[in-house]
Amino acid sequence: FDTLQTKELSEFEPLDFLRDRHVRFFQRTLQVLPERYASLETTRLTIIFFALSGLDVLDALDVIDRNTMIEWIYSLQVLPTDDQSNISRCGFRGSSHIGIPYSTKGPGVLHPYDSGHVAMTYTGLCSLLILGDNLSRVNKQACLAGLRALQLEDGSFYAVPEGSENDIRFIYCAASICYMLDDWSGMDIQKAIEYIRGSLSYDNGFGQGAGRESHGGWTYCAIASLCLMGRLEEALSRRELDRIRRWCIMRQQSGFHGRPNKPVDTCYSFWVGATLELLDVFQYTNFDKNRSFILSTQDRLVGGFAKWPDSHPDPLHAYLGLCGLSLIGEPSLRKVHPALNITQRAFQHLQQLQQAWKDSTAQYSTHTHIIFVSLPS
Ligand SMILES: *[C@@H]1O[C@H](CO)[C@@H](O)[C@H](O)[C@H]1NC(C)=O
Ligand SMILES: *[C@@H]1O[C@H](CO)[C@@H](O)[C@H](O)[C@H]1NC(C)=O
Ligand SMILES: CC(=O)N[C@H]1CO[C@H](CO)[C@@H](O)[C@@H]1O
Ligand SMILES: CC(=O)N[C@H]1CO[C@H](CO)[C@@H](O)[C@@H]1O
Ligand SMILES: [Zn+2]
């Protein structure tokens, strides 16, 4: 018996996937966070997204009150004012921190510091889709006007109208928004592609911008954006794509790291793993090593995943660790859509909505013979 038990512990215990602990981890994330995360308050919507999408990947969305959550997310929509003077500031804000009164209906109120943030608009729309909302209360034209106002002459995007860093991350968020709203009038695609191409570094990964160091996160944003635009093979030659595949494959050590000579980190199992999946070569990586590394960062007491073994779990690494496990086919998890970073279930919901939008537009335009171009999926 002793031998059996020792054998069981050493062989199986470290690889246990503690589903219920993770469900509770994300439930707690939706309610309260430790003080060390106080500075994330302005981006609370992204934290909510990690938790909601994490629960979706775990197939555990039934533990939350969907309608309350949907209403709260709509209360973060920056709506146009009566005179539309702020339309280029629309989108979703990250939380209620600037003190705009709670409201889920328009018109919006004027406030000098109120505006959408491109990553909040992206995670807000994803969250609504995950919750099964049909986006009928999203002011699409205002979101798209807000987006257009964020694009710079070089093709990159700011996060907020006042200006901020501008790089491929925000191009990715903008591309996801256009893709979800099924309307690319929110960006100049050609300019965005030029910026992405310019960020391809000499060693065949992508940097934050031209001349910057290659990095797994930027490479994900670049490749996923081009996939969402349906322009991957047009923007990059076959030879370039092969070299990018090679750069990404070389990022696997046990788990993945984001840059040469850096330690492995849970989140790159998603950033690099999803890029490899989008480039059709994920199957050439070693899944077992990947899985073992991610599971070594699992917090066995409170649930969630951390960046490294023996460090604190946080919502981002918890979510991306789960996505990494889902990509390698962990049996109890839902599949993740690698480019949009939501589950295939939520993605199918989006496809149904878009089909309904097309059908209703077609009804109104039968006399004008509009030709609908199908989206890349
Ligand atoms: C995908 O999800 C992660 C975690 O939610 C988030 O940090 C990121 O903004 C999302 N988009 C990208 C670039 O993957
Ligand atoms: C969208 O959902 C709301 C309820 O959430 C419903 O009242 C409305 O009819 C739906 N709209 C469409 C176009 O399906
Ligand atoms: C009255 C007011 O604050 N309007 C603002 C709405 O947004 C536009 C675009 O940023 C500003 O120029 C206006 O001042
Ligand atoms: C759980 C899991 O993903 N297991 C996979 C590990 O990788 C091997 C191939 O490398 C697969 O056969 C397993 O299914
Ligand atoms: Zn990380």
TrEMBL record:
Residues that span the membrane, as ranges: none
Cofactor entry: Mg(2+); Zn(2+)
Pfam families, alphabetized: Prenyltrans (PF00432)
Tagged with keyword Repeat: yes
EC number, as in UniProt: 2.5.1.59
Catalyzed reaction equations: geranylgeranyl diphosphate + L-cysteinyl-[protein] = S-geranylgeranyl-L-cysteinyl-[protein] + diphosphate
Superkingdom assignment: Eukaryota
Swiss-Prot/TrEMBL keywords: Magnesium, Metal-binding, Prenyltransferase, Repeat, Transferase, Zinc
InterPro entries for the chain: GGTase_I_beta, PGGT1B-like, Prenyltrans, Terpenoid_cyclase/PrenylTrfase
Cellular component terms (Gene Ontology): CAAX-protein geranylgeranyltransferase complex
Gene Ontology molecular function, alphabetical: CAAX-protein geranylgeranyltransferase activity; metal ion binding
Keyword Hydrolase annotated: no
Coiled-coil regions listed in the entry: none
Domain spans labelled Prenyltransferase alpha-alpha toroid: 17-342
Subunit-level organization: Heterodimer of FNTA and PGGT1B. PGGT1B mediates interaction with substrate peptides.
Family under the similarity heading: Belongs to the protein prenyltransferase subunit beta family.
Name of the protein in question: Geranylgeranyl transferase type-1 subunit beta
Native source species: Echeneis naucrates (Live sharksucker)
Gene this chain is encoded by: pggt1b
